[in-house]
Amino acid sequence: MNNMLEYRNYYGSVAYSSEDRCLMGKLEFIDDLILFDGTTVEEIELAFHDAVDSYLEFCAERGKEPSATFKGTFNVRVGSELHRKAAVAARKNGQTLNDFVKCAIEHMLYEDPRAHEKPVHHYHLVTRQTFREETQVEFFDPSHFPSDYDQARTEYVN
């Protein structure tokens, strides 16, 4: 299921309000707050198109540059260990960290057949413990990682 609308390179999200018994939407990925609503799918789609058109007309009338939906840069918080591993891997490949991350994103979007499936967690935790035996903790599901990570990472804890 997809609750995103697209029109003229702008995106809108849609949610249902049971309290108001209507569909409500918001233009996403822009700095301005633009909302729209409707009671049917056709109405919400039309309201979204009208919201985008009105926003662009408003900006043009005032000589304001409309918010770019995407500027091509963003910050990602990955934790210090993953950051270090990515930087080392990038250096070993003769790439900048930026190019390394860009390639990883491109891989997930264009090469990985799971890219368009519903997002899933890229790890799972399985524990098995009996009295006086070691506990096996398996951290990574190898099917979710590139070939470098095809073997599961397993750590044994006493």
From TrEMBL:
GO biological process: regulation of DNA-templated transcription
Signal sequence interval, chain numbering: none
Pfam families: HicB
Domain of life: Bacteria
Annotated InterPro entries: Ribbon_hlx_hlx (IPR010985), TTHA1013/TTHA0281-like (IPR035069), Uncharacterised_HicB (IPR008651)
Annotated protein name in UniProt: Type II toxin-antitoxin system HicB family antitoxin
Organism placement in taxonomy: Bacteria, Pseudomonadati, Pseudomonadota, Betaproteobacteria, Burkholderiales
